[in-house]
Design a protein that fits this description.
4 copies of one chain form a homotetramer. By secondary structure, the first copy, chain A, is of the alpha+beta class. Chain A is built from 3 helices and 7 strands; from the N terminus they run βααββββββα. In chain A, strands 1, 2, 3, 4, 5, 6 and 7 form a 7-stranded antiparallel β-sheet that branches. The relative contact order of chain A is 0.23. Chains in contact: A-B, A-C, A-D, B-C, B-D, C-D. The interface between A and B is medium-sized, with 33 and 32 residues.
Chain lengths: ~140, ~140, ~140, ~140
């Protein structure tokens, strides 16, 4: 019953900017990937599958934050430790610690919900309860 | 003496993900661009120029956060209102409100410093004081 | 009856890489956006709409190429001239000339088809004939 | 003496677009990474190092092309087989075959040069001869 997961990435040339360090939105991209890898470890194969089975199109963000502690550049290897930090009704907080070895680079948080298409407007989305089998793993 | 600026963007197909809405790290990309547009309005042409003149390679982040209030999709037009919210010694907080017309999509904050290359390690960076001509515009 | 269109972009800090010039996949991103702007000018509002009305989910690529003639960096303004170069049955070739003022930066081509979801496999796509109202504008 | 290399990637949610398939500029991003992994295998650790030692800031593109044979989506695993296809004076052609298992997704080519900063204009770049130790491995 996983409530944490570690994902590994290599910082690439194209992830860095003219200041030679990681272009910061990429840290959120890695957190998003780490979140999906964590969901995979919890038994969610893809949002395509959850959409077909439960109407759930994904787990979009309602909030995200990061503290940038140390800078990093290519071709360094990084690891992201993802865990469930808090559950608040329909929303939940994932904590991501991004490390290069023992050096913490970023401490991040994502607040997410599980969502379906808004029946009233297919261009918008709507929160639903955390699926029971997922909740059982996290509590 | 600008302490705020509005930037305009069009959400493109490639900015959206399989859930049909903006892939969230892109909001941080737009905040980063809005920050640079704001710095441009304050008289900073490019980090290339500040590096040549003052050694300043950029204004990297030490923190970033966002609340995602409403979802958005292509081909919608958005505006980002950027302002200096707070100055804390060497660091400063930019507030970004991302809107589609009157609808607030995202409320974001970036905490930044002005940085030079670390003389001790060219792969790392180091904070310096906010340049006087910039500080004068913000206070 | 448009068979050409010009799109404008500003090269941003985050579009550039540690070599200080545009990270090259971004030129294809701009071509993709320019293609969509061109389709917009031809009366296609969004693929969401074409999917609802005709089942067409987009105009995916079957080929793309670019010659990189001059380098560019931020914060330069660029323009992309997009035109239909050739129609080959179900496929068509868009030509994109990316310029900074009079200086040609990139000469690109995209070969695209109009596509629907493959009825046999929703994870795959299938080519359909170019819609008549579009073809009429291009020939 | 490597003249070919295989790189592995996982297609992520954020690599895909509203048509549910890979957003095509990402294939060029993977080719760029695969090229760098190949250069790594040839003994180039980073462009930072080559810049310090030889003034070489990278191996920028003068051309790129791709044929998109089959579509792909997340969370599929892909492999990129990179090899030197041709050497033409200062330029060289890398061939990239992107596969999902035995299924070819993309056949790509990148034509690159080794470059230094243009002494006449630091915002521009200039081609130099392929370094001898690299050339020896490729011929």
């Amino acid at each position: 019953m996983p409530n944490s997961h570690t994902s590994c990435f290599r910082i690439e040339f194209g992830d860095c900017d003219p200041a030679q360090i990681v272009f910061y939105p990429n840290y959120f991209k890695w957190m998003d990937i780490a979140a999906l890898h964590f969901f995979n470890a919890c038994g969610i194969e893809s949002w395509r599958q959850t959409k077909a089975e439960q109407g759930i199109i994904g787990a979009p963000l309602i909030g995200a934050s990061a503290k940038f502690v140390s800078s990093a550049t290519y071709p360094e290897q990084i690891e992201v430790d993802t865990s469930v930090q808090e559950i608040r009704g329909k929303s939940f907080v994932l904590r991501h610690v991004i490390r290069r070895g023992e050096t913490v680079l970023v401490e991040g948080e994502e607040t997410r919900i599980f969502a379906i298409e808004d029946p009233a407007d297919p261009k918008r989305i709507k929160a639903v309860a955390i699926p029971g089998d997922i909740l059982a793993q996290w509590t």
